[in-house]
Write a structure and sequence with these properties.
Strand content: 25-35%
Structural class: mainly beta
Number of strands: 30
Number of helices: 3
Largest sheet: 8 strands, mixed
CATH topology of one domain: Cathepsin D, subunit A, domain 1
Keywords: Membrane, Transmembrane, Transmembrane helix
Distance between the termini: 36 Å
Shape: globular
Subcellular location: Membrane
GO cellular component, one term: membrane
Membrane topology: Single-pass membrane protein
Oligomer: single chain
Protein name: Peptidase A1 domain-containing protein
CATH architecture of one domain: Beta Barrel
Length: about 425
């Protein structure tokens, strides 16, 4: 299907294609939400660049807190929000390395995962061996926090403890945190987790983001919460998935801040500042340089800090000082959103959570849907003529949306099920 996608009042993209399932497929084989494609061939980003609304095909994402305390997420197009970075210098910056196993191109190496107990002690699920590293793909479309190789998940389970409901040996969620592990609310892991990225930061995930309520989307669109059980948003790769590449999913971005620059072919990960006071939005150029002033007569850009790249990808050594030409706009379109998901059937509304900081979930509540708060940060001094952008030539290859692998996302009317069921 196709529809018109609008960005504020000035820019629109007509005949934007999106998929709508025509039949009820087997559980987990499709995403029940339309995906906002931000990949390397993104029509969405290219249209904004062509219209002069952003200077480069880049985006930055913070998912927002998903526990009892829920906050808005943030999606910045054409740059990043520095207020969401806990430590600017502690980052992993690496080359995008696209593959069938990692369609987003964001391949990282995890060299340790620690369980953080409330008494201040830590326990490694790697067993203390520095050689026990593995690669993982950062994929904002994947459900949960992390999908672990089965051996590592067994170590996690042995240390974390907890009892699945109804005396089962394993129960998985069919809700928003699809196929992550389900436990009794009264017998579940009560610590946090730290994921250490090789040559990068150690991302600390608090218990409130690791152990969450089990939530499903009902047939009427409402969010239903089961308070008697908890989802530990960790999955294990076993059986038919045992050879899959481990994944860092969207809830990883509740504790980490991600920026991707398709023009520069690079991505960066920082520990997220989950309680910013004011936004500090800056643009980036095609060489991944930070532009603090959006006008073309600005001073020289600031180079984004770079760190050693994970062994699986080569670092870019190109860090030229550059700035936008006089006729270009280094603007940013910024939208505070709860996720990358938008509901195609009702005009691609961007989801945005407006829950209070300490709100307690109800058993059933409606999805809060608002139009994205889109801000244009551009300069009118250069007489940019804002016109409706033309469609890309019909001979272009089909756009590759992010990501291209089989989605494990929300099914309607889902419930936690016995993972051992045939």
């Amino acid at each position: 299907m196709e529809d018109t996608l609008k960005f504020g009042s000035e820019t629109s993209l007509s005949s934007f294609a999106f998929g709508v399932p025509q039949v009820d497929p087997p559980t987990g084989l499709y995403s029940s939400q339309a995906q906002l494609g931000l990949g390397r061939n993104s029509t969405f980003l290219q249209t904004l660049v062509s219209a002069g609304d952003i200077g480069t095909r880049a985006y930055a994402l913070f998912w927002g807190l998903m526990g009892v305390k829920q906050t808005q997420g943030s999606l910045v197009l054409g740059g990043l929000d520095k207020s969401l970075i806990s430590d600017q210098d502690a980052n992993l910056t690496a080359q995008l390395a696209y593959s069938a196993a990692c369609p987003t191109g964001m391949l990282v190496t995890i060299n340790d995962i620690l369980l953080n107990w409330p008494n201040g002690t830590d326990q490694s699920i790697f067993g203390g061996s520095q050689s026990e590293v593995f690669q993982a793909c950062v994929n904002p479309n994947a459900a949960g926090l992390v999908a672990l190789p089965y051996r590592y998940y067994q170590n996690f389970q042995a240390y974390a403890g907890g009892a699945p409901p109804d005396g089962k040996s394993e129960v998985r969620s069919l809700g928003l945190d699809f196929y992550t592990m389900v436990f009794n609310a009264t017998d579940v892991y009560y610590g946090g987790m730290t994921i250490s990225l090789q040559n990068g930061p150690s991302i600390r995930v608090p218990n409130t983001e690791l152990v969450v309520y089990d939530r499903t989307v009902a047939s009427d669109g409402s969010i239903q919460t089961n308070t008697s059980i908890r989802d530990v948003v960790v999955g294990s790769l076993q059986d038919v998935n045992k050879d899959d590449l481990p994944m860092l999913g969207r809830l990883f971005l509740s504790s980490a801040y991600l920026m991707v620059n398709q023009e520069a072919g690079r991505f960066s990960v920082w520990q997220a500042n989950t309680a910013p006071t004011d936004s500090k939005i800056v643009a980036v150029d095609k060489e991944n340089n930070e532009i603090s002033d959006f006008c073309a007569n600005s001073t020289d850009p600031t180079l984004l800090p770079s760190s050693s790249t994970a062994p699986s990808a080569q670092s870019s050594t190109q860090n030229k000082h550059s700035k936008f030409s006089g006729g270009a706009i280094g603007g940013i379109v910024a939208g505070a959103v709860a996720s990358l998901a938008i509901l195609g059937a009702i005009g691609f509304l961007l989801l945005r959570r407006r829950r209070s900081g300490n709100a307690t979930p109800h058993v059933s509540r409606e999805v809060d849907m608002h139009m994205a708060n889109v801000k244009e940060l551009a300069c009118d001094d250069y007489g940019v003529n804002y016109e409706e952008p033309q469609e890309l030539p019909g001979c272009r290859n089909q756009v590759t949306e992010l990501p291209g692998y089989r989605n494990h996302v929300t099914e309607l009317d889902g419930r936690a099920v016995d993972g051992n069921r045939n």
